[in-house]
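Two folds, back to back.
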Amino acid sequence: MATKLFGVTVPPENVVDETLRRAIQVSAPPTPESLRAAVEAPLPAPEPVALARDPLAAWVEQTFGVELEGGRLIRRIHPITFAEGVRQLSAGGSLPEPLCSEKLRALLALGNHLQTEAGEPVFAFRLHQFLAAGGTVYTTLEPSAARSSRLQGEYYSPEGDGTKLLYPLAFCRECGQEYYLVDRSERDGESITPRLPFLDDENEDAQVTPGYVALQEEDLWSDSNEDELPDFWFEYRNGNRRLKRTYQLHLPVRLLIRTDGTVAEPGAEGAVEAWFQPQPFLLCLRCGAAYDRTERNDFRKLTRLSHTGRSTATTLVSSSAIVQLREDLQVPVEARKVLSFTDNRQDASLQAGHFNDFILVALVRAALHRALSEQHELDHANITQAVFRALALEPAAYAKAPAAFGPGKRQNEEALQRLLEYRLYEDLRRGWRVIHPSRRAAQQGGSSPL
């Protein structure tokens, strides 16, 4: 491999690999009886020499840390979880899992506390957790009480006779009503087939219309509901109110659909009643959230299961970790932090800006909530001062030249209050935020908090 990479001959003796040696000097228990005895024995003395002679410690090193390959010691290629290690210990020694879990935790903690001659822990904890992006839930076109749901993207449901189609779902950001992501085809008879789990999928086939399907359950919709459509969908001609031509195509269409996607005639058995709407999504049949035709981005109206941006996910995970660290009194104050590594400045700048903006919005809204809880009513004359008092920030947190008294203190406070006044009213307007929009944005038909 080195020869291919560098274009010159690299002999095997010039390739330097790591050499490992065992930290535990005894062998792992070879029989179930000896393994059971090692688990039931007391913990070794808190000394490196005693730990190096403990049979259970040898089993831990062999199970979690190293393995033999071609007669040489290497790091374990396929790591296992702590829970899997407990199950293996329980099965190998015919012991209850709670006992094995307690003994393993104590032994690992002891090994992490004791140090070798090089000043390193005998058992160094390396905790890895991979946070994967959320996927989509797929389900069949059946009543909610009987349908089959899966998290894997398959075309046919493995249950039944193999003809039931699995459709990806999206959910209204306002009320959570589910919608099937479908393609309505007029080719070889009308049919409703699953489409890719993208909210803004493009289709160049003139005979296929991408859209959304909602099951008719709990009196979801009826033709009489058209009177409740938003005013901007209508126009007045010769004194008569009528639906605009551009919105007529977006009225829900009643369909009877079988589980294989074929559209049935009225009165057919084995079909469910549903409503079809073409893309873009302009109307939620459950809560009535309506959108203008210019709002073609369905991402702000619908969301898939666990559909969160990377920046938002990183911000939430990081802030949650910091909050939990502050509540853990066993962690030193100087260690209650999160370190993040990135491979370029642009990503670091983007994440830092997203984090700061998220925290700023949360702080301002929390202060407004506290101020309202204390005074019960606020208006333009006192809202800024009330929010300022609710924040209760130290001067060093917001002032470049902090002052404890005098004109400097007054000028700093006035500057912060002017900024707070702008932030408060800016946050109340209908904005573009998807994850945590303002309350007014949600009431006016914008996106609601996840």
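---
second:
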Amino acid sequence: MRGIFLFAGFLSCCFSLQAQTERPNVIFIMTDDVGYGDLSSYGAPDIRTPFLDQMARDGIRFTDFYANAPVCSPTRAGLMTGRYQQRYDIEAPLPSSLETANGRGLPAEGLSLPNLLKNNGYSTGLVGKWHLGYRDEQSPEAHGFDYFFGFKAGFIDYYQHTSGVGAPDLWENGGQIQEEGYMTDLITQRAIRYIQRHQNEPFFLSIQYNAAHWPYQPPDMPSVAVRNSAHLMPEEENTSTREDYIAILERADQGIGEVLAALEDAGLADNTLVIYSNDNGGEWLARNTPLFNRKYSVYEGGIRVPAIMRWPGVIPAGQVTSQVGITMDITATILAAAQADLPLNYQPEGMNLLPIVSGRSPEVDRTLFWRSNMGVAVRSGDMKLVMEGPRRSFLFNVSEDPAENNDLTNRGQADVRRLRGLLDAWQEDVNAERDQRLAGTRGN
């Protein structure tokens, strides 16, 4: 059964742009808990994101792009492996410390995205959030990153650089460090420094902003930062505000602009593939319009995210595409752009999107799956099935009805049966590999 899920992604991953003889640098930028409708180019009326908007004008913007999961650790596992994260038993955010994680994390099997790029001559760097394990054998370095600056927990105090349990959580190359500064700015500064140091060799740089994840601590306002340090919920007195959130996200957009300017200054802009996306749907201060629900949910508001790609001379400027994509497609796309030779035991499930975004191939239908503790879902073509338990099924045409207002279950029984069959087969497949991997871990 696994071959069915892998076949399309494998064929597309093997495709490369023959006309591109020089391997590009690659920068992947991810924000955290940002809503689908939180960028100006996605309709936000109250947030200014000029640099991401310019990136969209210079390349292609996706309307139907998805995170691998409605929460962070699973989506990041999908990015690192290029596969469904359920196969690695990562379906929920990892706890906030080495002690509470109890050894859980993404195993380093030598097939992570930075490993594969490093084996093909790329320098590899990660600045920002990791959230895939605390042990040395689960670290960014173990997965192939030559350089790491950032934090390992799910979120961090923007000013004090402590994790959710109050412990220091700022790292550089395997060692804990102390440094003054607003976390978003520190990530931007380290990203620019990485570009400057590696401009004479092919590099892969993953920039993982904590913005706009709680605690909602805006820049240049330490008094508000103290007030918001407990990531207050909406029903509480003196809670965080949409204005706090806006300031956090706009600072990240400013940082992205500085990173893009550094590429220009180094003369690398024309030979750098830059990809932007988000890890899951937005939280309660976010704007997920026009979608329903938010983070944690497998409805569109929990999993559909903004995504933008820019590669001058390869991706024509000014495009908007309804091609369905998912986080692990980013993995396949990066490997194809890098013209990476892949080992025979690597089994990618994402699809290389370069043939489509470059205009060389038409858009194609996809079948994609999601599972969290709040439900399971499958999208096949335009139709999507959401299940909130064995006896609560909801059917939507998400192309016509992205807000999921119109449940078609009462007239779409045939679609429900078809999609339920696909979902059951997928769950059986990923569960079998997960169980086999867990049994091997116990055996060791």
